[in-house]
Amino acid sequence: MIGSHLAEELLKRGYQITGIDNLSYGRLDNLKQVSVNPNFQFYKVDILDLDTLKILSRDCWAIIHLAAVKKIAEKDVSLPTLQVNTTGTEHIFEVAKMWGARVVFASTSDVYGMSPDLPLQEDGDLLIGPSLIKRWSYAVSKLYGEQLAYGYFHDQNVPMTIIRYFGGFSPRSSFAWSGGHIPIFIRAVLLDEELIVHGDGSQTRSMGFVTDLVRGTVLAMESDRAIGQVINIGNDEELSVIETARLIHKIADTGKKLKLKLVPMDQVFGKYKDIQRRIPDLTKARTLLGYQPQIKLEEAIRLTIAEISENLRA
Predict the structure, then answer these.
(1) What is residue 162's three-state secondary structure?
(2) Which helix (H) or strand (E) covers residue 198, if one does?
(3) Which three-class secondary structure state does DSSP give residue 84?
(4) Active site residues
(5) Tens digits of per-residue pLDDT, 200-227?
(6) Is there a contact between 300 and 209 (Cβ–Cβ < 8 Å)?
């Protein structure tokens, strides 16, 4: 989702782009606006294929590393998350070292874990839960990726920037939980289906529109001041999950009743304790990059509802 919007923005700025994805999560349909551009080339390649990565990255001066496998439920297998997010990230830094490219590594707000120090700051302590709960595989694999980035930066002189994305969405988001709760809620409201809420819905999130995530990513890629830094990127509006569902229902104005279904946390996540509040401190992004989110949550939801509604009617 982010990659397709990012490609559009970079093409507008005159860049030549090589896109790589194994399409296990992404959809070629997301690239229909850029696939006809002669400055964009796409290859269906797995990030674990190091030999092919070496060839395709030869002429790149910057690599934006977005590839990941996100862990959702405790019943899911965790090895793909661990393998792709660690070995795949090492591959990216190996080819960057080989060809002298800089790397923008997409990490996640999940690495903050259950930290109570809000808003979450880049130099704050991280609080990860019990190691035998598989749900933590995503956070720890991304944290390991950050350590790889620091290692290649300090030991191998590979210029890099780590951006910690907070939640983001667009009309191209997946309707699976890996795409976040907002697209799922929008689709359910528009189709008059039940909205599944984990727990009582009091947990809060800070969700940004994709254009803000893209702008922060491009700023990080182009700024020499960002080299060697870890920077939060996202929206610092905070809203509970259940209030988000109600806001979506209000904006959609379908004339239908909101159908909420509360599912106990342990039925989905086992002994994993959900992170209750997640809000970024964006001071560093503002200071280093001049970054400021421009799309308010309510407007982002309106834009997404409008396009998803049109797609559902098509």
Answers:
(1) strand
(2) strand 195-198
(3) helix
(4) 138
(5) 999 999 999 999 999 999 999 999 999 9
(6) yes
Ramachandran region of residue 283, left (φ > 0), alpha (ψ -120 to 50) or beta?
A: alpha
Length of the chain: 314
Cα separation, 247 vs 207, whole angstroms: 13
Which DSSP letter does residue 273 get? P
| Region 2-313: CATH code | 3.40.50.720
For the whole prediction, is pTM greater than 0.85?
yes
Instruction: Please state, in angstroms and as integers, the Cα–Cα distance from residue 75 to each residue in 82, 124, 133, 185, 190, following that order.
Output: 15, 31, 10, 22, 29
- Enclosing H/E stretch for 59: none
Q: Taking a C-beta distance cutoff of 8 angstroms, is the pair 65, 20 a contact?
A: no
CA dist list (Å): 124 to 120, 151, 257, 310 = 7, 20, 42, 43
The tens digit of pLDDT for each residue in 2-61 reads 999 999 999 999 999 999 999 998 899 999 999 999 999 999 999 999 999 999 999 999
Tokens of 129: 């839960």
List the chain domain ranges.
Answer: 2-313
Give residue for tokens 């529109």. 209
Q: What is the dihedral of CA 175, 176, 182, 187, to 10 degrees?
A: 40
